[in-house]
Amino acid sequence: MHTTKNISTRTMSLDIIRGVALFGMLIVHAAGFSRANNFSIHSLDYYLSIFNTLFLDYKFVSIFSFLFGVGSHLFFSRAQQRGLRSYRLFSRRLITLLPIGIISILIVPQATPILIMYGLLGFILLPFFKRKPSTILRTAGIIATCNMILMIGTMVFTNLLTISTGTAALITGSMHYIYYILLIVSMFLLGLYVGKIDLFQQLSQQMSKIKRIHKISFLLSLPFALGGVWTGYINPEISENIFFLGISDLAAYPFVIFYLTSMLILYHKNYFSFIYKPLSYVGRISLTGYVAHLLLLKLLVLCLGWTQGFTLVQSLVLVLMVFTILILFSFVWLQKFQQGPLEKVWRLFTYGKYTPR
């Protein structure tokens, strides 16, 4: 019974975090769909843009990437326990993810091709599955450190060099994309590390360590939050504010750790338990939910006649509508099935036949 309880706790906590991550990504994508970028300084949309950029952009996709790393470990270890060809199956799992990602981009071309990136970058995990947790954590730390140094260097040198605005935008845009890729890879490895040490399976035993990390991540996050707000205040043109955008990107690492540990602590203390179930339903079908939320955003924008653009305040209305639909759909679907429809397809093509979980 003890093992069953641990597995249940692990699964529920992971599903809740997946649901939260999907909700955060939904806010970011809805804001992107709005095309709102010429709003008045100090308007409500202006403050929402600062909040989204500083506290949401890159943060929730990083949590999603972290969960991908955890899920990859669970998949690989289960395949090994069943005596299956784990490396081959994991490779097929990644390859199968690519057409799903391509379909999502065909539906919504303006969305970041995150599933395609996962399908390609996921191969980086192959040599790490049988490495010691300490080696994986050290590698993730090295990548994260180099990534942050790279972004800081870009901020400083772009500001010092006498170049045109267009050239500066090209340089910073390229470096942001590189930063994004390295951020995903480092979060993959961090998730793999957490999966290997069975943190979610031993949540109660690890809670003192989680609380300590939570305090440290909060202290590390505070300067980024204050610095981001300050740089946004002194230069309100945030779309061209290199330091604001750089600080927002750099904040991803401490913020993600703070968000994750906060969710684990709240879950352990059973705070906000009334929203656990709805979030866990969406989290259980997170792949379906990811593709579905893009499709729903596009359909609702068409139905509401907002194709020429809308405000960030209106984007929050879209968020509530889409997430409510996802909750209702996931609840009804999971009453009859154990997996979401795309999860079933992904599993079918991974194994070449339908297999129970």
**Helix/strand order, N-terminal first:** HHHHHHHHHHHHHH
How can the largest sheet be summarized? none
Overall 3D form: globular
Secondary structure category: mainly alpha
Query: Unreliable segments (pLDDT under 50, ≥5 consecutive)?
Result: 1-7
Q: What fraction strand?
A: under 5%
Keywords:
single chain, 357 residues, mainly alpha, globular, disordered N terminus
Structure description:
The chain is mostly helical and 357 residues long. 77% of the residues lie in helices and 0% in strands. Residues 1-7 have low confidence and may be disordered.
Summarize this entry quickly.
77% of the residues lie in helices and 0% in strands. The chain contains 14 helices and no strands. The model is unreliable at 1-7 (pLDDT under 50).
What's the layout of helices and strands?
Layout: H1 2-34, H2 44-56, H3 59-81, H4 86-107, H5 114-121, H6 133-160, H7 165-196, H8 207-234, H9 242-250, H10 252-268, H11 276-284, H12 286-304, H13 312-334, H14 341-351
Helix pairs in contact: 1-3, 1-11, 1-12, 1-13, 3-4, 3-7, 3-10, 4-5, 4-12, 4-14, 6-7, 6-9, 8-9, 8-10, 11-13, 12-13
